[in-house]
C-alpha cells in the first residue's frame, strides 16, 4: 500500500512524544501519530487513517442532485486570513485561527480508501472536485504526495475530476494529469485574487506568489489544459478597484487563461474575528468601512455585490475573458463532463471504465515555496 512507507515505525524519528498514539488528547479519529518535520518549520502534521474519502455535498450542478468532493488534508498552511474553511477546525478541538494554518490533518490512506469507494457497483462516476475546502497542493503535499494516488484512482474508475488550488506544486502532477486526460475530463482552476505583492504576502502568507501561480497557469496551458482563474475573494476598497481588476485580467490573459470568475468577501463566524484582527493590524483606516459593509452578516449588501459584479463583468469582457460556469454544489467550475448534451452522452458512455493508467514515476517529495 502506498502509505506503508509512512507507518509510524518508518518515520518515528520526528514523532512527538505524547502525540504518537490514538490516546492523544486531540479529537482525531484514526490518529496514527503527530509529527513536526524540521523542514516544515512551524507546521504540525497529524497523520490519520481515514474511513472515507468521498464527501457528498448537496445541490449539484449540471442536473445532478449533489456533488462530490475529496479533501486529503484538513487545515491549510496557505493560511489565507479570509479562508472560509477555518471554522471546520473547531470540530477537531483546534482553533480556527493559528491552529488552522499550522496544524494540518493528513489522511495517509485517502487514495486506497477512495479506490475502494470507486469500485462499488453503485458508484455513478459523477464528477469529483478537489480543493473545495482545503488546498490539496498545500505544503504538506510536498511531503505526503497524496494527489497522484487520488488522480490515478479517479482516472482508473472513469471518474471526471476537477482541481482548484493556489499551490504551484500542481506542476509536479501535470504530466500525470496529461496522461489521464484522454480517459476522463480534467478541469483545472487556480485561485489568484490579489495582484498587489505586498497585500498578497500579508493576507495569504503561506501561499506561492501571484507570479508563481500565473506561471503555473502558463504551464497548465502549455500542457494542453484550459485552466480558469478564481478571483475569490475580492476585497472591498483593496482589490475591487478598476485599476486592480484591470491589472488582474490583463495578467490572467497574458498567462494564457481564457476564463475567470470572482466572488465578494464572505466573513462568516470564526473567520470574521480572524479577518478583523488582521485588518486592524494592517489596514486600520479600513476598519470602519468594513464594519459597515459587514454589519448585517457574512455578506456585504446586495447593492455592493451587484455593483461589483457589473464592474468585474465589464473589465473582464474588455480583456476578452469569459466567466466559467460553476457547479453550485462544490463551488468549482462545472465539469466539462456536464457541459452539454454531447458531453453528457460521452459521460454516460463511460459505463465501461477506461484502461487503468500506468503508474507514473513517483515524484521526489519537494516543497516549491
Ligand atoms: S488556500 Fe484555500 S483552503 Fe488554503 S487557506 Fe487559502 S483559502 Fe483556505
TrEMBL record:
PANTHER family: SLR0285 PROTEIN. Residues 336-356 are annotated as: Disordered. It comes from the Bacteria. Keywords: Iron, Iron-sulfur, Metal-binding. Residues 62-311 form the Radical SAM core domain. CDD domains: Radical_SAM (cd01335). One of its GO terms (molecular function) is metal ion binding. This is Radical SAM protein. InterPro entries: MJ0683-like (IPR040086), rSAM (IPR007197), rSAM_sf (IPR058240).
